[in-house]
Amino acid sequence: MKRKLFCFTSTIIVIIFIMSLTLAGCARSAASKTGVVLPKETSAGEPARISESAQSTSGEAVSEVQNQAGTNLPAISPKIIKTAILSIEVAKDTFEESMANITKIAESLGGYVSNTESYSDAEGNLTSGRIIARVPGDKFNAAIEEVKKAGKLKSINISGTDVTQEYIDLQSRLKNYQAQEKVLLDLMNKSTSVKDSIEVQKELGNVQGEIEVIKGRINYLDNMVGFSTIDVSISEPETTAPVQGGGFLNAVKRGTEGAIKVLNGLAFFFIAISPLLVLAGIIILIIWGSIRSRNKRRAKRAAEAAKLAQKE
Predict the structure, then answer these.
(1) Contact 110/170 with Cβ under 8 angstroms?
(2) Nearby residues of 31 by Cβ (< 8 Å), 6 or more positions away
(3) What pLDDT digit, counting tens, does each position of 219-243 carry?
(4) How big is the chain by its Cα radius of gyration, in Å?
(5) Which numeric CATH code is attached to 80-162?
(6) What pTM, to 2 d.p., does this model score?
(7) 103 with 172: CB under 8 angstroms?
(8) Cα–Cα distance, 34 to 205 (Å, whole number)
(9) Which of 2, 22, 200, 277 is most buried, by the most CB atoms less than 10 A from its CB?
(10) Burial class (CB in 10 A: 0-12, 13-18, 19+), 152
(11) Yes or no: is domain 165-225 CATH 1.10.10?
(12) Cβ partners under 8 Å of residue 63, min gap 6
């Protein structure tokens, strides 16, 4: 029984193999009649070779499909947003000059200053601040080196944000929406009823709105990539009060100044609370007067009671 089953299985396998060879031969014969050369078997990792006529026909078809699908986007170079944050200490009384020098550095490299902030000390002199400059991306390193020369570098932080993928996605979405816009414009021209025209116009407005949003984002990224940001904090050295010398005269002077400050403080305190003191004095006088008059009345009543007792 097993032998018969084995023979039957072998016969089926042989028949299938013969049919496969026959079909392959028919396919090659048909291909040779149409002028297309089918690829031969190749070794692992070796690409199959196709005739020049087949390559030309295939290339044209692929190019047409890519044009229709919007996949023929131009090659995009890396998009990096560069930012530098620096802290610089400049010589005393040179803050405003340093701000002007950094402005000149940015302008000389084809950039500009987007924002400035200045702060004054207790005496009203401008001694610290911040300036934000935008310079072309290819002049970023040169601008940093020039800014370093403006004073003593205290800290620096340089960072870069890669937005290439976002840029590619935006370009692809823009091309897709523009294709939709073209189709909708064609539909609007072919609309035969007011209802269809209104519906197409509504959808067209949504698509055109998305196009404007994407274009705005692309323009923003182009600006951020094209012009790098350099944020510089500038400050003059902090001034410290001179240390007073020793000696008897200095001690007397400091003691006198301290006593005057204490007396001034007490005088200011009493002046501030003087209305309360006056009010408290009035209240005390009223209370004292009422107590005194009550005591007088008590004494008078006691005297009258004593006289009555004597008469009795």
Answers:
(1) no
(2) 37, 38
(3) 999 999 999 999 999 999 876 555 5
(4) 48
(5) 3.30.70.60
(6) 0.51
(7) no
(8) 50
(9) 200
(10) exposed
(11) no
(12) 72
